[in-house]
UniProtKB/TrEMBL annotation:
InterPro entries: Glyco_trans_2-like, Nucleotide-diphossugar_trans, TPR-like_helical_dom_sf, TPR_rpt. This is Glycosyltransferase 2-like domain-containing protein. Signal peptide: none annotated. The lineage of its organism: Bacteria, Bacillati, Bacillota, Negativicutes, Selenomonadales. Residues 15-124 form the Glycosyltransferase 2-like domain.
């Protein structure tokens, strides 16, 4: 029996709460993936003009209209206010539970100890061609309704929670088909025009929007403003360093790109993706000793699935081994090159590059 369960226990009840707008392409897929879990489905529509409501009506009659006021937190809090069950689960329309995660969720619902106020889950963001997770983070996903937890933030809102917290390995999978790339940037720009004071979190996410729109110099300005507040969450601080490095890379400012990478080390021990970036820099400059140092360090770092920050699984698994294969090949150590290629193969056995490297290295080793 799971550690979070009691011996004698009745299943918890769950309200699924969602905000939607023009989600006809994905909403059925989402609701089908969670239909057997939700005792109640609350849908708050913020202005759909497509068939979203019609499709949702197959699953629930609890559909509410909410006038859009450029505030995601307000819409989500309104959705939460309509819930009547013991716990609230939130999702976006382009999220799903895959079958293995749904099975775990069924078990959790049947056995969860009501002493827990918050249940967090993993959030699978991107996948490679082999359907393996590339990037992932963790989010508070199920909360006790009576605690009246609130969403905060007009854009890139977050759920402020407290109390007894259970971390699970259940994952919600993000499967977008597209998005309104201008929406969030426009909201921030309207906030600016109104003279609203940006919180540190707003500064960070506004900078992200600017970077995504290739406004690199403006993005740099706001990442620097964010870091200067010294009030950011550590994972956002590290994310800002990574995105600063991205911006400087695009501007071909190598010196500041490197400074941004090293700046991340002030906030935590080195992360695998920063180590790989440094390895790549030194490899491109034929500084093989330094490249090997950073790539080896990337292979020695633990992967924490309890991390609330973004985890880059490529840099934490196969990528540094492939690059070490390249480095050792260049210095003529074909035995070590072969060993690292085979380690990478454990993660991506069907990758053609693995087979290519194996054949060349076996010829060098006389096998």
């Amino acid at each position: 029996m799971p550690e979070y369960a009691k011996q004698s226990h009745s299943p918890i009840t769950i309200s699924l709460c969602m905000i939607v707008k023009n989600e006809e392409a994905t909403i059925e897929r989402c609701l089908q993936s969670v239909d057997q879990i939700a005792d109640e489905i609350i849908i708050v529509d913020t202005g759909s003009t497509d068939k979203t409501k019609e499709l949702v009506s197959q699953f629930t009659n609890k559909i509410f209209d909410f006038e859009w006021i450029d505030d995601f937190a307000a819409a989500r809090n309104y959705a939460f206010s309509k819930a009547t069950q013991e716990y609230i689960l939130w999702m976006d329309a382009d999220d799903v539970f895959l079958s293995q995660d749904l099975q775990q969720l069924v078990e959790l619902k049947a056995t969860l100890n009501r002493e827990f106020d918050v249940v967090s889950m993993l959030y699978n963001l991107t996948f490679d061609q082999f359907r393996k997770v590339i990037s992932q983070l963790r989010r508070s996903r199920i909360v006790k309704r009576e605690k009246d937890f609130r969403w905060i933030g007009a854009v890139h809102e977050y759920l402020e929670v407290s109390g007894n917290h259970l971390e699970t390995t259940i994952a919600v999978t993000h499967k977008p088909l597209g998005h309104d790339s201008e929406r969030n940037l426009k909201i921030y720009e309207r906030m600016q025009l109104k003279g609203e004071v940006f919180s540190p979190r707003d500064l960070y996410y506004f900078a992200n929007e600017l970077r995504d729109h290739k406004l690199y110099n403006q993005a740099i300005e706001y990442y620097q403003k964010f870091l200067a507040t010294r009030q950011g969450w550590v994972e956002d601080n590290i994310g800002a360093c990574a995105r600063l490095a991205d911006c400087y890379y695009q501007l071909q400012d190598v010196e500041n790109e490197l400074k941004s990478i090293y700046l991340s080390f002030q906030y935590d021990t080195p992360r695998a993706d920063f180590c790989c970036r440094l390895g790549f820099y030194h490899l491109n400059n034929n500084q093989l000793k330094q490249a090997i140092f950073w790539y080896k360090l990337a292979t020695q770092l633990d992967i924490e699935n309890s991390s609330w920050g973004l985890v880059n699984y490529r840099c934490a698994t196969w990528l540094p081994h492939i690059q070490l294969c390249v480095c050792y090949s260049r210095i003529g150590d074909y035995k070590l090159a072969y060993e690292h290629n085979e380690i990478a193969a454990k993660f991506i056995p069907d990758e053609p590059l693995i087979q290519h490297n194996r054949k060349l290295l076996q010829e060098q080793l006389g096998n």
